[in-house]
Each structure stands twice: as structure tokens, then as C-alpha cells.
């Protein structure tokens, strides 16, 4: 089972006077503060806290600039904000700027409500490929279909032909990426999912082959955050990196992912390419787990793990039925006897811990 999010609001500030005020308000709301200054501890707390209270002093440092937008962020100040800090508050997606002491009663009520109803976030699985034709889209589709609680499958590889073809949803009604490229900041998750195509219980956001266009990082982040906010599992099929390495959207998704899967064919060149991907300076793939696509005469999973330097979650043996279903526009089989189904359930177990 996934551990529930902590019930303590996160406070990001170094202003001692403001901290005293915030701790007093939170105590009156029946809770205590979670504090984190930066690094992985801040990212985890920022992701999971039911409410984030950001002091005006923290806006000037830009400590939140590298973090994805999320709902439930309130900027707190002891005086009116100058224009530059107002702009910074908008940039982090703050729902309100609370000025103390005038807004103290509102902040008390907001904090109490957040503790009673913490933000529910579904797990995030990011799937990428070591090389073209590795089968990352097939793995991503299988994981989403195997999830029992209405997963969301996001196609971030808009030049890959479309995941709707893979799962047999090319004629399904609903929004595609060209309709959502302008999304920014907070998005109502349930409303978004209701507008997307659905197949076999999976909500799908994919490219439009008639109007392909790159997906801005802000739009990808907004969609993923909104979908996770509904409590559903989210699976993102990531594109192969370009000449300049992984794009900003890929980096954001991988930084926030509960599990990053890299699909690697059991060939020496593919394994070597995967090693480059996970060891390059500043790579977002450094914590990846591997899915090894095996075939007769190829390397073994242990050999691939040794070359790449990452652990293997599972292997995907060659299965002609997978290819046949894909060509017929049928969703990947995830039944009890399916090799894809067994792999997908192993991945979901890995996420659940």
C-alpha cells in the first residue's frame, strides 16, 4: 500500500517573526508545521503536504522555482508585496497572498480545512526507451491498463504515432494534446479527465496525428499534476531525448515520478545507449529501473543490468501476440497468463512498495 500523505502543512520561510505567526496559526488549527529548506527533503514535503505556506522572503530566493506547480500554495506576508514578489507568487501558482494580521482568520480556516482533507495524489510512473522500437509505449499502456483504479495514460511522445492506436482508441471522442497546449498552473482534475478519451477504464491523453505539435513543459506538468490530484495512478510515456538531452517536461516528470522505467532491448548497443542515458551529467534518468526486452540469442537481464548500472524490475520476453494485438488496434493483453500483464503487475507492486 502507498503511504498516505503527511497531515502537516509545509512552511517555507526563514523569517523568524513570520515563522512565529505561522506556527501560532497552525497550532490554533490543530496541527504543526513541516519545515524544509531545500533539496530532496523540500521536494518530498512540497509534493505531499496538504498545504504549502510560503513566506514572502522565500519568494525572493527562488527556492520553489524548480518545483512543479501544485494546488494548495499560499504566500504569506506581514506587509504588502512589491510588484516583483507578486510576480513571483503568480509564478509559483499561489492560490492567494495572505497578509497578516488582516488575513489571519482566513489562514486559520484554510489550514484547518487542509488538515481535514489532505491532497490525495496518485502514483506517477514514467516510462522511456533506451532506443527506438524498444517497446516503451507498449509497457506504458500495459501498466495503465493493469491498474485497478482508473489510471491516466499520458502520451508525451507526440511524434511517436499516438498511444490511441496502441490501445484501440483512435476514434474515441475527447480532447487531444492540441486542445490543451495552453494549460498552465492549477487545473481541475476531474473536469480534465471527463473530457479525455477513455478505453477499458483508462483515461488517455495523446497526440493528434493531423496536427502534431510539441508539448510545452508547463502543459505537461499541469496535466500530470491535475490527474494525480484525483488520486488515480498516472503513467507517462516519455519521448526519446533530442540532441540537447531530455527536455524540460521530461525532467519535471522524472523528478516527481515514484518510479522511472527505462525499457532496454537485450542487445549490447541498446544497453550501452541506456548507460549513456543514466550516467550523463545532470541526467534525470539516474534513478531509473530497467525493463529488459529479451529475445533468443540476446543478452540476459543480469548482463543488461551490469552494462547499464541500474536494477531490473522485470523482463519482457518476445511475444508475437503483443505485436498482433497492436497491429489490430487492440489494447495490450494484461490477463493472468499474459507476459505483459505479469510485468505490469510487477511494476505496480514496485510502486506500491
Question: What does this molecule look like?
Answer:
- With 353 residues, the protein is of the alpha/beta class.
- It has 2 domains: 10-116, Response regulator (Rossmann fold), CATH 3.40.50.2300; 124-352, Rossmann fold (3-Layer(aba) Sandwich), CATH 3.40.50.300.
- The protein has helices at 16-28, 39-48, 56-61, 83-91, 104-116, 136-146, 163-166, 189-194, 217-228, 248-256, 268-279, 301-308, 320-327, 339-352; strands at residues 10-12, 34-35, 52-55, 73-77, 96-99, 124-129, 152-155, 198-199, 202-205, 234-237, 259-265, 289-293, 312-316.
- Strands 8-9-7-10-6-11-12-13 form an 8-stranded mixed β-sheet, with helices on both faces.
- Helix 6 (136-146) crosses helix 14 and helix 9 runs parallel beside helix 10 (248-256).
- It is elongated and about 70 Å long.
- Mean pLDDT is 86; it is low at 1-6.
CATH class of the largest domain: Alpha Beta
Mean pLDDT equals 86
Strand content: 15-25%
Which CATH-level-2 architecture of the largest domain? 3-Layer(aba) Sandwich
Number of domains: 2
Helix content: 25-40%
Oligomer: single chain
- Largest pleated sheet: 8 strands, mixed
* General form: elongated
CATH names the topology of the largest domain as Rossmann fold
Which residues form runs of ≥5 with pLDDT under 50? 1-6
| Sequence of secondary-structure elements | EHEHEHEHEHEHEHHEEHEHEHEHEHH
CATH superfamily of the largest domain: P-loop containing nucleotide triphosphate hydrolases
Counted beta strands: 13
Q: Helical stretch count?
A: 14
Q: What structural class results from the helix and strand content?
A: alpha/beta
Evaluate the radius of gyration.
22 Å
Strand order of the largest sheet: 8-9-7-10-6-11-12-13
Amino acid at each position: 500500500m502507498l503511504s498516505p500523505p503527511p497531515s502537516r502543512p509545509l512552511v517555507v520561510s526563514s523569517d523568524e517573526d513570520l515563522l512565529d505567526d505561522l506556527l501560532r496559526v497552525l497550532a490554533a488549527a490543530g496541527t504543526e508545521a513541516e519545515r524544509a529548506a531545500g533539496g530532496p527533503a523540500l521536494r518530498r514535503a512540497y509534493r505531499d503536504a496538504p498545504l504549502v505556506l510560503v513566506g514572502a522572503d522565500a519568494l525572493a530566493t527562488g527556492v520553489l522555482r524548480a518545483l512543479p506547480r501544485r494546488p494548495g500554495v499560499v504566500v504569506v506576508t506581514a506587509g504588502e508585496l512589491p510588484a516583483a514578489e507578486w510576480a513571483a507568487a503568480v509564478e509559483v501558482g499561489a492560490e492567494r497572498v495572505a497578509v497578516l494580521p488582516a488575513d489571519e482568520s482566513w489562514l486559520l480556516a484554510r489550514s484547518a480545512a487542509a488538515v481535514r482533507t489532505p491532497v490525495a495524489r496518485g502514483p506517477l510512473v514514467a516510462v522511456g526507451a533506451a532506443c527506438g522500437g524498444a517497446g516503451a509505449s507498449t509497457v506504458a499502456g500495459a501498466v495503465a491498463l493493469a491498474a485497478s483504479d482508473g489510471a491516466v495514460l499520458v502520451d508525451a511522445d507526440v511524434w511517436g504515432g499516438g498511444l490511441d492506436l496502441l490501445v484501440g482508441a483512435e476514434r474515441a471522442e475527447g480532447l487531444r494534446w492540441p486542445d490543451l497546449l495552453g494549460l498552465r498552473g492549477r487545473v481541475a482534475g476531474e473536469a480534465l479527465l471527463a473530457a479525455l478519451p477513455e478505453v477499458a477504464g483508462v483515461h488517455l491523453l495523446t497526440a493528434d496525428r493531423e496536427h502534431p505539435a510539441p508539448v510545452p513543459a508547463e502543459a505537461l506538468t499541469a496535466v500530470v499534476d491535475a490527474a494525480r490530484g484525483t488520486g488515480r495512478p498516472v503513467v507517462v510515456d516519455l519521448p526519446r531525448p533530442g540532441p540537447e538531452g531530455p527536455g524540460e517536461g521530461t525532467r519535471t516528470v522524472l523528478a516527481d515520478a515514484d518510479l522511472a522505467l527505462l525499457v532496454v532491448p537485450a542487445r549490447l548497443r541498446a544497453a550501452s545507449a541506456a548507460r549513456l542515458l543514466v550516467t550523463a551529467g545532470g541526467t534525470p534518468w539516474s534513478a531509473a529501473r530497467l525493463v529488459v526486452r529479451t529475445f533468443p540469442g540476446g543478452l540476459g537481464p543480469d548482463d543488461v543490468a551490469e552494462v547499464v548500472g541500474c536494477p531490473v524490475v522485470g523482463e519482457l520476453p518476445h511475444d508475437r501476440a503483443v505485436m498482433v494485438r497492436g497491429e489490430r488496434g487492440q489494447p495490450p493483453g494484461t490477463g493472468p497468463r499474459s507476459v505483459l500483464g505479469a510485468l505490469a503487475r510487477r511494476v505496480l507492486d514496485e510502486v506500491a512498495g
